[in-house]
Amino acid sequence: MTRSIEPLMDFFLREKGESVSVNGVQLMALIRDATDKIQSTDEKIIRSATPLQTGDFIDYRNERYLLTSQIDQNNNSCRGRMRTCNYSIAFNFNGNVKWFDGIVEGKTFSIDAGNIISMPDGTITVILQDNADTRDIALSQRFYNTHQPFKVKGIDRTVNGIIKLSCSLDSISTAYDDVENNIVDRWKYEIAHTYALTIDNRTTANVLINDILQLNVTATDNGSPMVNPAITFTSSDSNVVSVDNKGMVMGVEAGQATITAALTYHPTVQATIQITTVETQTHTYTISITGNPTIKVGQSASYVSHIYDNGIEVFDQSVVWSLRNQDNSTPVMGSITASTGNSATVKAGSSSSYYNKYIVLTATLSSDPTVTIEKTIQLKSLI
């Protein structure tokens, strides 16, 4: 004679139950793998003393599940089938991007027969919770999954609590889609960001043991300086060179280490500098040039040299300026109209034949001609 689990529900929950979160509410539940014909590794059966509804989100063992069907409900418990939300999908509502946890499958199941129904290549089914946000999803709306674009071809709302989307492969919009981050039409409503990071102390520097060196970092977004950017500093060997979260470097013992600066929220944007810890300091000069990378023909632009000694900017050195065509042809398509030991004014030639060609401005350290830096400048039309 088979005994019902219902009278023993409290006992089983207390002794065998596990903590889960149902729509953000903590409770105890019994979880087991599905055992019927349509079982799969991401399918489980949940039983709880608390009512469950199709479409509930269940967080269990660091994974999110969607309750895809309520099997039965008795006086003492409720039982349902839940499946892992295997993808998070972004839908773009006229610039308002909303992410949804859901189930994406390239094949579907027949619950009645318990067998797999094949789907045409390039089509998927997306199962989402039915809520106020997902109800805004419309036919022909596009989205990305695994860096591939899809279009909604059908919407099934016949099951209370969930929405099923029938979707097919679509084409990429190279002008608007953020393919890398799986966001459709992102650049239609947002400005595309191009970040850059440089360490102003140049690529190498020396520091004395137990002495400090402040790293100066410049971050830009689409060429414009960022105000107080969040930057993370790391050392390849903190036993040789240490660095704090403000870019303050200290020599610990003789040797070399690489310091990496990265934008905290865009960690692939990086710059590095090789630091050598020394017992006695020697001069190691480097130069950088700041100024506009383009000049319109017939117009002028100013450039400034910055001289560093072991990564620290110094002001007791000067440079000699020179100008040439990038391809070393003659005559030079511009001229240096004024210069000092650390600044120069460059005027571009006025010929239309110079459009989109390049000149090279060179700064050479007066005290050591082997130390030099070049800046390539593009000549642009007046329009």
TrEMBL record:
Protein origin, superkingdom: Bacteria
Q: Record's InterPro entries?
A: Big_2, Invasin/intimin_cell_adhesion
| Transmembrane annotation, as ranges | none
Question: Which residue range or ranges hold the BIG2 domain?
Answer: 213-262
Pfam families of this UniProt entry? Big_2
What is the name listed in the Swiss-Prot or TrEMBL entry for this protein? Ig-like domain-containing protein
